[in-house]
Amino acid sequence: MKEKNTESIMLLVVFLILLMSSCSTAEKNVSGQPIKEFTRSEMAEAEAERAEEASFDFTVNDGDTLWDISGRDAVYGNPFLWPLIYYANRDSIFNPDLIYPLQKLKIIYDFQESEVDHAEKTAKLTPPYKPPVKGERHPLFQF
Fold first, then answer.
1. pTM listed for this prediction
2. pLDDT tens digits, residue range 86-114?
3. Domains in the chain, start-ordered, CATH in brackets?
4. Model confidence pLDDT, tens digit, residues 19-42
């Protein structure tokens, strides 16, 4: 019985030695290729490329609204996501009802699901835009 245990242990040791010798110290991916370690600058460059792919610039045309732009299939395909455009362009849009022809807007796709949900809820709670009637003064300027 003792000889069988010793023999089993010896076989196990030989198996482990063979297994260890076939593995290199570098980690490998699923296809067996060594995993490359990236430097910080390479990581920053890759992140910048990913961010660039996750957005594009849109030029506003005459008559465009954030609602119309976000509803286009090439943008979000959902007009209720117009707040995403507004949030991404707060530095150039001061009033979401007022955008201008030739204005450049950044359309971003890299949003978390919670941000998309919040934008949609915000849009649904926002009253529709009513353009001023010609000749009617803005309430702030009535004196």
1. 0.57
2. 999 999 998 898 899 999 999 988 888 99
3. 56-125 (3.10.350.10)
4. 666 555 555 555 566 666 667 777
CA-closest candidate to residue 57, choices 93, 106, 127, 22:
106
User: DSSP per residue over the chain, as a string?
Assistant: -HHHHHHHHHHHHHHHHHHHHHS-SS-B-TTSPBPPPPPHHHHHHHHHHHHHHTEEEEEPPTT--HHHHHHSTTTTS-GGGHHHHHHHTTTT-SSTT---TT-EEEEE----HHHHHHHHHHHHHSPPP-PPPTTPPPGGG--
55 - beta bridge partners? 108
Phi, psi of 55 (to 5 degrees): -155, 165
Backbone region of residue 32 per phi and psi (left: phi > 0; alpha: psi in -120 to 50; beta: other values):
left
